[in-house]
Amino acid sequence: MLLKVLIALVFLGMVASLAAGAGFLLRDGSASRRLLVSLKVRVALAATLLALLFYGFHLGSLGG
Fold first, then answer.
1. Structural domain count, the chain
2. Which residues lie closer than 8 Å to 24 by C-beta, 6 or more apart?
3. 8 domain residue, yes or no
């Protein structure tokens, strides 16, 4: 159960980072440093999400 909550939280963090990046792009323009940081956070969260999914399927707690 904890693994599913972690996966959901990481996914919500990715969506929040995506929304923040879109806001930074609209306000600051494409040369924004905050936009780059938002992208780095989103990539790190995506890697974490993949790792959690692989771990969950490996343990059998996510798959049938």
1. 1
2. 32, 34, 35, 38
3. yes
64 located within any domain? no
Please answer whether residues 24 and 35 qualify as being in contact, where contact means their C-beta atoms are separated by less than 8 angstroms: yes
Cα separation of 27 and 19, whole Å?
A: 12
Q: ∠29-32-33 over CA atoms, to 5°?
A: 170
Convert the pLDDT of each residue in 19-36 to its tens digit.
999 998 898 876 778 988
Report the C-alpha gap between 4 and 28 in whole angstroms: 36
Q: Is residue 30 part of a domain?
A: yes
State how far the Cα of 62 lies from the Cα of 58, in Å rounded to an integer. Answer: 8
Rounded Cα gap, residues 7 and 30, in angstroms: 30
Residue 40 in any domain: the answer is yes
For the whole model, what pTM was predicted? 0.86
